């Protein structure tokens, strides 16, 4: 079992920045990738970014160049640095962990609201 707790969401004006954090605990040795998803009101949950144990990161086209995912392995903490935020980035952001056995674990989500 892997447990994840997000923090850092809030209200920001368009063009501003926020950094989300996600602390993961439990059976962290079996985690192979971490990442972020988001879900806007009335929409499906969509993938935002993923980072592997080796530090390789990939991004959705909609956030590439503005968002940066990183991980502090010693602190078991995942980050999402979000710059140049736009109103369409408003969503609940979820961190996730995928294990080597193909299991997915999710945090409870943190709300990000970008005002125009």
What do these coordinates show?
By secondary structure, the chain is mostly beta strands. Strands 2, 4, 5, 6, 9, 10 and 11 form a 7-stranded mixed beta sheet that branches. The chain has no helices and 11 strands. It starts with a strand and ends with a strand.
Quick take:
By secondary structure, this protein is mostly beta strands. The chain has strands spanning 2-7, 10-13, 18-26, 31-39, 46-52, 57-59, 67-72, 77-82, 91-99, 104-106, 110-115.
Helix-strand layout with pairing:
Elements: E1 2-7, E2 10-13, E3 18-26, E4 31-39, E5 46-52, E6 57-59, E7 67-72, E8 77-82, E9 91-99, E10 104-106, E11 110-115
Parallel strand pairs: 2-11
Antiparallel strand pairs: 1-3, 3-8, 4-5, 4-9, 5-6, 7-8, 9-10, 9-11
N-end to C-end Cα span: 40 Å
Alpha plus pi helix count:
0
Mean pLDDT: 96
Indicate the radius of gyration in whole angstroms: 13 Å
Shape: globular
Beta-strand share of residues: over 45%
What would you call the quaternary organization?
A: single chain
List keywords for this structure.
116 residues; mainly beta; seven-stranded mixed β-sheet; 59% strand; globular
